[in-house]
């Protein structure tokens, strides 16, 4: 998601400082972002005549100190998000909007990790964020109206449409979507139907643009499992407990499009 959100921002002329854990990761990210910008412009989802925002890459969080907005997009593991959000919150100046691109973790839980919880808000970009215009914005109980207004203006400048919800673990999208994908995986695991048939029924009968299992492959099955555990631990809902089939795919390294294989075989590692 980091490369997707960066693609969206620089495509609309917004400068970005992209932070990752290694120079190798950043070299790969630059290549991926260049490809995604070209792809999005060809599809008309980024303005073709806009001067691109400058992209700076770094392995040091200190380089975000002068940013007006910081978007955290690390893995959906509470400890990882806490480490990054706490560090960033201590670096940036008051008035800096702090966004978590979380898919499940409660914004109110995160508020305890930052210095100024009123400046923290959740923004759940869909994947790929440079193509999908609708964005789920999560207002924590401590999120200020001023922060919310700044985020909505920023998203509008990026050509996104915001729908604001109140805080709840999993929010709206993933409280609906993740149990659906998990159940679809159970049906395949139990031999009730193949992945193609499950997805075909959801597409043909219920009008889904892609079936739940192709969607899981796009999300990344490791990210999906992490989010399901967050939902299960928070809510105790058995439909959110990752099924054996999902856990096995993750254990085998079959993570979806990004690894080249998940519920479907993509032939090569997806960029």
Give, in order, the helices and strands: HEHEEHEHEEHEHHHHH
Report Rg.
19 Å
Mean pLDDT: 94
Determine the number of helices (DSSP H or I, runs of at least 4 residues): 10
Q: How large a portion of the residues is in β-strands, by DSSP E?
A: 5-15%
User: Sheet with the most strands?
Assistant: 5 strands, mixed
Summary of the model, kept short:
With 271 residues, the chain is α/β, with parallel strands linked by helices. Helix content is 45%, strand content 13%.
Question: Can you offer a commentary on this structure?
Answer:
With about 270 residues, this protein is of the alpha/beta class. It is built from 10 helices and 7 strands. The protein has 2 domains: about 1-165, NAD(P)-binding Rossmann-like Domain (Rossmann fold, 3-Layer(aba) Sandwich); about 175-260, N-(1-d-carboxylethyl)-l-norvaline Dehydrogenase, domain 2 (Orthogonal Bundle), CATH 1.10.1040. It has helices at about 1-10, 25-45, 80-90, 105-110, 145-155, 175-190, 195-205, 210-220, 220-235, 245-250, and strands at about 15-20, 55-60, 70, 95-100, 120-125, 135-140, 160-165.
